[in-house]
Specification:
34% of the residues lie in helices and 27% in strands. With 186 residues, it is α+β, with helices and mostly antiparallel strands. It has a 7-stranded mixed sheet. It is globular, with a radius of gyration of 17 Å.
C-alpha cells in the first residue's frame, strides 16, 4: 500500500462561484434545500450575512452562514458533504463561524436544529449551545419541530475557555484523510 499524503483543509469566505457546489451539498443534506438564488442574494445584498466554505485540497466540502442581528449571531445554514462527515470538518467550520461572530462583537450565537438531528445537536452542545425553546412544525417538508439553541455570552470566561480548549483539541487532531483512504490502508 502506498500511503496517501494528508489533505489540506481551508476555511474561507463563500463566493458566487461556490453556489453550485454548495447546492450539491444542500441537495445531499436537506429535503428542502435553499434555492441558488437565495445564496446569490445573501452574498450580494445581505450586509448582515457572512458565509464560509470548507475546502479540502481545493474542493468545496462544507459551508455555513451567520447573520449578525444587533448583537446576536444567528447560524442560518450549516452542512458538510455526507462523504466528508466524521472528519472534524464541521467542528472546524463551527469554530470559524463563532470566531466571525466574536470578531463582529456578537454577544451570543443561536440556531435552530431538527429535534431528530442528534449528531448536529451533540456537535452544537460540545460548542456550548444549549436548548432554549422550540419552534413547532418549523420544517415545511415534514412539520418537524426545531429546537432553538443558544450559547452563553461569547465573552464570558467559561465560553472563552471552552472555545480555546476546542481550538487546541482540533489543532492536535491527526491530519484529515480523504473518504476511503482509511479503508484502503487496512
Amino acid at each position: 500500500m502506498v500511503a496517501r499524503p494528508p489533505v489540506s483543509v481551508a476555511i474561507e469566505p463563500m463566493g458566487l462561484g461556490d453556489v453550485e457546489p454548495v447546492q450539491r451539498i444542500e441537495r445531499a443534506s436537506f429535503t428542502t434545500p435553499w434555492p441558488p438564488e437565495a445564496y446569490r442574494s445573501e452574498l450580494l445584498t445581505n450586509r448582515l450575512a457572512t458565509y464560509l466554505v470548507v475546502r479540502v485540497d481545493g474542493d468545496l466540502v462544507g459551508y455555513g452562514g451567520i447573520w449578525l442581528m444587533v448583537d446576536e449571531a444567528h447560524i442560518t445554514t450549516f452542512a458538510i458533504d455526507p462523504r466528508w462527515r466524521r472528519r472534524h470538518l464541521a467542528a472546524r467550520l463551527l469554530l470559524a463561524l463563532l470566531d466571525v461572530a466574536i470578531a463582529r462583537e456578537a454577544r451570543e450565537a443561536t440556531l435552530e436544529v431538527r429535534l431528530s438531528n442528534l449528531a448536529a445537536r451533540r456537535l452544537y452542545e460540545r460548542f456550548g449551545f444549549r436548548p432554549v425553546g422550540l419552534r413547532p412544525r418549523y420544517y415545511s417538508d415534514d412539520d418537524e419541530d426545531a429546537l432553538i439553541m443558544t450559547t452563553e455570552p461569547l465573552a464570558e470566561p467559561a465560553m472563552v475557555g471552552r472555545l480555546a480548549a476546542l481550538r487546541i483539541e482540533l489543532a492536535d487532531l491527526p491530519p484529515v484523510e480523504a473518504p476511503g483512504a482509511a479503508e484502503e490502508s487496512r
